[in-house]
Specification:
Blueprint lengths: L45 H5 E2 L1 H11 L1 H14 L1 H6 L5 E13 L2 E13 L2 H71 L4 H35 L9 E2 L12 H11 L1 H21 L6 E10 L13 E8 L5 H71 L4 H35 L6
Parallel strand pairs: 1-4
Antiparallel strand pairs: 2-3, 3-5, 5-6
Length: 445
Amino acid sequence: MLDIKIKITIAAVVFSCGWIHSPSGCCPGKSADAAETPQVELAEDQASVEGRSIAGYVELGLAANPAISEAHFKVVAARHRIPQQQSLPDPMVNTKTFLSPVQTAAGEQRFALGVSQKFTNSKRRRTKAAIASAEVSAAMAEFQRVQLEITEKIRIACYQLLFVQKAAEITAEDIETLSQISQIIQRQYEVKQSVTQQDVLNVETEISRVKNQLTVLRQKEKSYRGRLARLLHLPPQTDLQITDSLTAVPVEHSLQELTDKAIQFRPELAGQLANISRDRHKICLANLQRKPDFTVGLNWISTSSSGLSPVANGEDAVLLGIGFNLPVYRRRITAAVGEAKAATLASSSRYESLEDQVGEEVFDLIARAESSQATLEMMQQDIIPNAARTLELSIEEYVNGDIKYVQLIDNWRALLRYRLAEAQMIADYNQIAASLERSVGGIVP
């Protein structure tokens, strides 16, 4: 009798992955900020790259993915804007050479040298620096968002690869099962003559069809490996192997708990709060246009000792000048304040909209996870065991001549379909868990 073994293992997998900052390259001429994290050597031992757990591939992707490096350097660039906003403008130096000397009582004046410095309002400079600091916070939130997104994509790619590998394994096992069924049919045809030759040919055709499905799965496996390699910034032909098995990751948190976590840790919300802070500082900056800026200048004029006057003494002239702008165009300043206030209200509305989107997304993912978990439990506890038992009985009944070939093959197809559906459900469930982790802005214990 055909021995059908169905091995179903459900294990809880807990992912632990903190905020891993993307390493960046360091070469002569780059700033100290850019050199804080050394670049990861991609040409590492091939075995360590090709054989890793899902968490290991996530770690590798966070270190090597170019999108994370891009977000990291945007943070570095934003930080360099703060000292620029705090600084005074460069002093101005100007010279004048008189093509026709200026005749004065003290003597002829042929050359003048001046130095001036504009002193912008100190509170305005501090406000601009605060705006730049808020932009740094927004860039940091974007950096964290990209990290979560890449983490989600890597895990989804890993689960897709594990599914297609499991599907290929199940299909290969069912080819063996079908081959044994074919032997039974062949024996029935040769010994008892209780079946027609058409049954023999049909089962051989069925074997060829399943082998073709196995070939398609092998091709998909290569495609998913290429997708994972791209996320890891590796050559697409890298033979990546995942040491983890395809098992379900239980999510045992309430909707309210995960929603609160998402509101607290979701990078998009943190970034939008930074944008609100930036826009509020812009209101203050617009109001500060009512205060003038001062320019202090010192001029020196060279004077010769000879001149038209007999009492020319040749003493040089030194002048001190102070100037300031007059903020008299009030309509422009009022319009700037109104623009900044409207932008702040728009940012606040955007934050509320993001809150609603986050709540809806978490609710939808939890609902999908619960539905998938319930269906998976039914598949594992009822449907597959019953289908396996049905196939066993069908083989016995076929040998005894109680059922036809069509019923036997239908029962075999049903078991194969259910086993593949189980693997797909586990992969989908884990992908939902990966998306839920990204949605709440961190790790789901």
